[in-house]
Amino acid sequence: MMTVSTNLQGSFPPLVTPFRDGEVDLAAYRALATHVIDGGSHGIVVNGTTAEPTTLTIEERISLVKTAVEVSAGRVPVVAATGGQNFRESLALCQGAEAAGADALMIVTPYFIKPPVRGMVEYYRSLAEQTSLPILIYHIPGRSGVSLPPSAIAEIKRRVPSLVGVKHASTDLAFVTETLALCGSDFRIFVGLEELSFPMMAIGAAGLMNAAGNLLPKQISALASAALAGDMAEARRLHFELFEINQAIFWDTNPIPMKYMMRRLGILPANEHRLPMVPASPELEQRLDALLERLELVD
Questions:
Q1: Alpha-carbon span 106 to 103, nearest angstrom
Q2: Which residues carry out catalysis?
Q3: How far apart are CA 37 and CA 78, in angstroms?
């Protein structure tokens, strides 16, 4: 198993899930994982939001973890997103991911039910008791409907020694400073919103978990590496170089624009989703094509 303190930092793209004729395309997934690792990514995330995980079965999610671990072959850490809407589902995913060889778990705050903070503390404590892997909280209030203040993160960390970080997908920059002040500078905060990659890393975030890493892994990992090395001028330059692509990812619900652009660049063999997600509209396709041509990413 990899050492968390030295390996959980940098660019960890949350891989999309390729589909073909309604089924998970594991061959395309292997190629994607290879593309991202060979592109210089410091790690990979399996079954993050970009993977459309709520449309996948538990068995499919565990199969994707196994595939990512096989492709990585110890070259980079594999973080498995194992959160669900209820405790039993999350526990099954955590145990399945650990058995499949994941290096760390990322557990989203349970969505829709809006539990109180005391419930969240017990939720993460109880899950942590059932796994030996390090844990990150996936904090994404816009999708889950749950917002954890830094004080709650600190309380969970106090009760859960294996909690090593948070993926923060929110525009709240103050959250980063406050959480690091309460939890210590070695606490890992990963940026979950592309446009805030540079600002949050300048404050002290440990890395990026950005969908754009599927598309441009080399540039995203270079931004993370520059920021970690203290080369803020280079990180800032890359921030502006990537700005239009980062905005385009959210021209529709992620990963709709991402999958279309990946197919156009030949990274995915097909642009397929599972309902209620749908492919890009013709109008969005035209807008994305114009961007890719302007940036000289396609002919």
A1: 10
A2: 138, 167
A3: 11
